[in-house]
Automatic annotation (TrEMBL):
Lineage of the species this protein comes from: Bacteria, Thermotogati, Deinococcota, Deinococci, Thermales
Cofactor needs: Mo-molybdopterin
Residue ranges annotated for the Moybdenum cofactor oxidoreductase dimerisation domain, each copy included: 279-392
GO biological process: sulfur compound metabolic process
GO molecular-function terms, A-Z: heme binding; molybdenum ion binding; molybdopterin cofactor binding; nitrate reductase (NADH) activity; sulfite oxidase activity
UniProt source species: Thermus thermophilus (strain SG0.5JP17-16)
Annotated protein name in UniProt: Nitrate reductase (NADH)
The keyword Transmembrane helix is annotated on this UniProt entry: no
Keyword check for Signal: yes
Secretion signal span: 1-23
Coiled coil: none
Length: 430
């Protein structure tokens, strides 16, 4: 039926009568189109979402011992497009989010420089600015994949929600370093946060000169406190833990700090028992957000939707398998496909009501892709905690329920027993 005919019928009450006669529960009643007779909400100085959307929130593990050291997960399957709204960007902090007064805020650059410098927030904003869309992903994202047997209740949020994507505005760190004049022989930067953990990491000077931002805005407004207000580092494509928030100072030096969070934490155990430090780049990831764990679908048409990203650059393609990797179909990528940023992938699909397992696999422009679970654990120890990027499977049961489709690995359970919370306390602290 064309639009004109639809409205003509509607005007005559024809369609309404037709539908009423046919259906026991009409799709609308007369009240649906009754004029609104009540005054709406007044103007507000700062907007809020609809109260009907209040259930769309970050996930915080009930296993966490304290909300001051841990993580909250972005609700990936409840979001559209690629930008994570500021109130839903995943959080990770080690001693709570400090409240920093922008008037007294200072950033110090010192050490192996010609001119040690102190910047106010106003100073930083006077420099030429850059706005770029980048994902930030906790090195511990995907940690639930270390669970064996896999958690049948897993959702997309709890599978990969320690990643978010935002438009960041700030000053290239290279500009500030040029202003200070880096001395020959300097190779490392030691950024430090002003949280109570004095969070400290070591950042190679080379990466800083390439594309690191000293960011003060997130999706057009000032950073949220939990994202480092007023100033944080944004290190494109690298693990979130090096993107120091509430940035207080940067020491320029010739050697890494070997800080707590790059030695006892954020190091990776390989299958043959070695421990790797300074593993910064995030390998490709993808997650089908619809249909995904916890949802329920009906037979018929569906647009499979998901998110993909890589710390090596742009996503080249995303493939979907309906037969656990024997054959693959290529999904469509929604432009623009930017480096170090979320991309939305889609694939039209008709579900015939039979049990099926969906896999997604991202490829980046450098030719990297995601391993299967079996392949992943050939390389990494089952006692590792970071950089899990194996394919996430979703199983659709005949009744339409979607559950974790990851198959258990042999040799019994590993994780979830341990003394510490890790990123989000999801795996280790149960
Ligand atoms: Co790492």
């Amino acid at each position: 039926m064309n639009r004109r005919k639809f409205f003509r019928l509607l005007g005559a009450g024809g369609l309404l009568g037709l539908l009423k006669a046919r259906a026991q529960t009409p799709p609308w009643d007369e009240g649906t189109f009754a004029p609104t007779r009540t005054l709406g909400e007044p103007l507000k100085e700062y907007g809020q979402r609809s109260p009907f959307e209040e259930g769309v929130v970050r996930y915080i593990s009930p296993n966490l011992r304290t909300r001051h050291s841990g993580a909250s997960f972005a609700p990936l399957e409840k979001l559209e497009g690629v930008i994570t709204p500021n109130g839903l960007h995943f959080e990770r902090h080690h001693a709570g989010a400090p409240q920093v007064d922008p008037k007294s805020y200072r950033l110090v650059i010192h050490g192996m420089v010609e001119r040690p410098l102190v910047f106010t927030l106003e100073d930083l904003k006077r420099f030429p600015s850059v706005t770029r869309t980048y994902f930030i992903e906790c090195a511990g994202n995907g940690q639930n994949g270390y669970r064996n047997p896999p958690d049948p209740e897993l959702t997309a949020t709890r599978s990969r929600g320690l990643a978010s994507n935002a438009s960041w505005t700030g000053v290239p760190l290279a500009l500030l370093l040029k202003e200070a004049g880096v001395k020959p022989g300097a190779r490392w930067l030691i950024p430090e946060g002003m949280d109570a953990a004095m969070y400290t990491r070591s950042l190679p000077l080379e990466k800083a000169m390439e594309d690191v931002l000293v960011a003060y805005a997130q999706n057009g407004e000032a950073l949220r406190p939990e994202q480092g207000y007023p100033v944080r580092l944004v290190v494109p494509g690298w693990e979130g833990s090096i993107q120091v928030k509430w940035l207080r100072r940067i020491l320029v030096t010739d050697q890494p700090a070997m800080a707590k969070d790059e030695t006892s934490e954020y190091t990776d155990v390989t299958a043959d028992g070695r421990v790797l430090a300074f593993t910064w780049v995030m390998d490709p990831e993808s997650i089908i957000t619809y249909p995904s764990g916890g949802q329920r679908i009906q037979p018929g048409f569906h647009e499979i939707r998901g998110l993909a990203w890589s710390g090596h650059g742009r996503i080249a393609k995303v493939e979907i398998s309906f037969d656990e990797g024997r054959t693959w179909r290529q999904a469509t990528l929604e432009p623009p496909v930017e480096p170090y940023a979320f991309v939305r992938f889609k694939l039209p699909w008709y579900w015939d009501g039979k049990e099926v397992v969906l896999w997604s696999r991202a490829w980046d422009e450098k030719g990297n892709t995601q391993p299967t679970r079996e392949e992943f654990f050939k390389k990494w120890s089952r006692n590792n905690r970071y950089h899990y990027n194996a394919i996430q499977a979703w199983r659709i049961l005949p009744d339409g329920r979607v559950v974790n489709g990851d198959r258990p690995l042999g040799q019994g359970a590993f994780h979830p027993v341990g003394p510490v919370g890790g990123c989000g306390g999801e795996v280790l602290d149960v």
